[in-house]
Amino acid sequence: MIKPLRRPFRKALASALIFSACVTVGGASAQARRTVALGAPFEVSTSPAGNYLAALIAGADRDTLAASTFFREALRFDPRNSELTERAFIASLSNGNMRESFALADRVLRSDPKNGLAWLVLATRSIQSRQWQAAREALNKSGGGRQRDVTAILLNAWTFAGQGDARRAVETLDRIKDDRFASFRDYHAGLIYDLAGNGVEAGKRLKAAYEGEKTSLRVVDAYGRFLARQGQREEAKQVYLAFDRLLPRHPIVRAALSALDANKPLEPMVRSAGGGAAEVFYGLGAVGGQQNDSLAAMIYLRMSLYLQSDNGLAIVTLADIFERLKQYERALDVYELVPDTSPLHANAEIQAGLILDAMGRSDDALKQLDSIVAEAPTDIEALTTLGNLQRTRKDYVASAKTYTRVLEQVGTPTRGDWTLFYFRGIDYERSKQWPLAEADFKKALELFPDQPLVLNYLGYSWVDQGINLDEGLRLLRRAVSLRPDDGYVIDSLGWAHFRMGRFDEALRELERAIELKPGDPVINDHLGDAYWRVGRKLEAHFQWNHARDLKPEPEDLDRILKKIESGLEDEPTPASADVDGKKNGG
Length: 586
Fold this sequence. Notes:
CATH topology of the domain at 450-586: Serine Threonine Protein Phosphatase 5, Tetratricopeptide repeat
CATH class of the domain at 450-586: Mainly Alpha
Radius of gyration: 29 Å
Shape: globular
Number of strands: 0
Order of helices and strands: HHHHHHHHHHHHHHHHHHHHHHHHHHHHHH
Distance between the termini: 19 Å
């Protein structure tokens, strides 16, 4: 069968590792603020136990605003409870209440002097106020594990950089001997030398980091900016273009290339020691997001934004975490913090539109995207997202026109553009323009041979129409070999056998498909048909009734109800002319 269309190929925002930050991100229309999206307070209970239970539930759901609010209230009734104090501290920190977090960190340390996170938070406060010695003293008390040791070393190095001692800062970094952190070490050493004005050593270290991590957006951007400021603008351009071939049209890369083409300057990645420390926390937060450790990621990102509130990547990484947790209101609040001047601004507005759609506010989402496209009619990301949204709303004619506009902007398509032809092909097929759909599916396979989604859709469509059955069967078998555990693709193969009158083979494949996707109405409907044809009519009725209860499409429901009432009509002549070598259209 054709796999149901969800919001496909959604570009994950800020799904970076420390270095491999290949992110498609964007920004919204408000200036960044010091404290991120604290929101309005909740109505709390007069019962301490009620507030505590509410806080536990909110914390488990990673609802940082509710957790911090209810823990704060619970702590008012039991201020000397050390466990409650620590929980309130973590909740407050993950919600970005930095001033409150500092006060709670002091209280935590009175009962637990070795609490590493509390010392790390106090070190961050000292870094922000440029109290470098105090920061180091706190960092030296925050160790306790490999990750914390590396974090402390990195931040210690930046405190020396803050004092203008680049030599000692880099000596501190070079204590990191683990090869797994070599690029990270060289990256920060290069940033520190660059901040100190030592272009020769900065170039050596940044080049070493780049050679080790050419797929990292942060390294690419830092190295490209450094080369441009050293007068090596063509070399910088090649660095960005190499990344663009890996991840086309990234907004940060596009902005840098535009500046280079216009002979405009590129500012350094880090402009202060505090910004360097913020970069350390951003990297840790990005890793936490990648590894689905949402609480740790939130905490690191909050500290990063405390030190550098206009870091667009940190903002959208945080927003993406909220979005993945389905805390859409919070995600929208955070996206609004990306500065207007950020290259990520337009993409975050696009993502905000998708969040509105996920919240069930489809009309608002469409208005948002329409307004973005009206302001930027050649923006490929905005147009593509608008086309996707139109398609999910089943406005297939409008969606096909939007994808056509995208392809006009793309020009000569490359392998990465196969999805545009695939999606437009779906629009044409759903709007009953099969010749156009078939041409787009074939073009998608030309760009990306053996793409299983396209093989499945084209093969299924041919078989379902009773045309090109030999070729359709071949495509479906290939799709199954590439996706052997995909119930939708296996259903397509089973349906091909059914359409060709091979009911025993159809039944075998369809029973495999139903094991993988028991809750799909179309697969249940197909299996019912197969059961009927092999004489297992009681089981056929069971599957049809199950398909009916699974909320199929309205046109499918009408057919299913008729089969429940009267069964299948007499067996038709199998659509097998194709098997004998006589192509039945195309």
